[in-house]
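Assemble and predict.
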Amino acid sequence: MLFAAHRELAGGADRTVVALPEGSTVDALFSELSGRGGDWSSLVRSAAVAVNRKYAARDTVLRMGDEVALIPPVAGG
Amino acid sequence: MAWSAVTTDPIDPARLMARVGGDPQDGASVIFTGTVRNSNQGRPVSGMEYEGYAEMAGEQLAAIVAEACERAGSDRVAAVHRLGSLQVGEVSVAVAVAAPHRGQAFAGARHVIEEVKRRLPVWKREHYTDGQTEWLDGEVVGRVKQATDGEGAGG
């Protein structure tokens, strides 16, 4: 899931599809996205990630059906 | 009774205060409201658009309110964040806390607004009078070293 400035960088899509081997971590997801080049690598550098609506560490293992969201630097309030 | 919501409806601070009032053990109550300002770094602002990861924001705000209850030593803590398009002067976020003593009430309210700014998955796009818009720079949510059950980066 992509939000705010990330969505704009991705050309307006609110979602992007990433194929990863079973047992991949958040870190692997970040590497794959960085590898797309251009704006994606700067996006990844400042992004946090939420898995199933909770902030997740880089070593979190992703599973089929997990809801994964890239969280740009937050600006609420 | 702690309460929180993420909504697109206009916020009524008086109603929020009423949610935390009425407990005779409380000697202090605090209300904080955040409103859209008319300028940012010299640029005149016409409005603000708030976008959020709604489902997660709801859960995070509830967690933040629970933390504030501990700090305030009171379960009379209520907070609401609004999403959508807001005009200058409209309330984007409000926090109300009642507690036996003022130190607790202030501490509880402060905790909520500071944590909202630090970790609530909400973003704002400023609309300027010249027609331009810009997503505002935010806080990078801190990374946890190791995944722990039920705890986010802000925990």
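Chain A touches chain B at residues 1, 3-5, 8, 46, 48, 50, 53-60, 69, 71-77 (CB under 8 Å).
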